[in-house]
Design brief:
By secondary structure, this protein is mainly α. It has six helices and three strands, in the order H-H-E-H-H-E-E-H-H.
């Protein structure tokens, strides 16, 4: 009986390790494709600095664009920001509400922890971790 429990525990631990390894591979894959501007955009959605349930933030496009220009000194045109948001939607890091005017973008609830790890890993590997805080 104890042997079965040990085998089940080791199987569960193996599944957890495999799951974590897949997540690390996915993070590494995305880090190669995303740049500083993409990460700053994701940071606006996923790292608000507020307590749950206000720890993520949806944005409509005009408000996001004006905030990014004023607060983050973003040097992108509106079309450039749209293309960046579209690519983040395409890779599954943001969600766009279809047929909304103006366009509304949302963080994906199931990926909150994953995207936060991605953002932190980017800042750590870039040597910019102090600017994250």
């Amino acid at each position: 009986m104890d042997e079965k429990k040990l085998i089940q525990k080791s199987d569960e631990q193996l599944k957890i390790n495999i799951s974590q390894e897949k997540e690390n591979i996915e993070i590494a894959f995305l880090l190669e494709r995303l740049d500083f501007t993409d990460i700053i955009i994701l940071k606006k959605f996923y790292l608000t600095g507020k307590a749950f349930p206000y720890d993520t933030q949806p944005y409509c496009f005009p408000i996001l664009y004006s905030e990014m220009r004023e607060n983050n000194n973003l040097k992108l045109t509106k079309e450039g920001l749209r293309k960046r948001l579209h690519s983040l939607v395409k890779v599954g890091l943001l969600e766009k509400i279809n047929r909304s005017n103006p366009s509304i973008y949302l963080p994906i609830k199931d990926k909150v922890d994953f995207v936060r790890k991605l953002i932190k890993k980017f800042f750590l590997t870039s040597g910019l971790f102090n600017s994250l805080i």
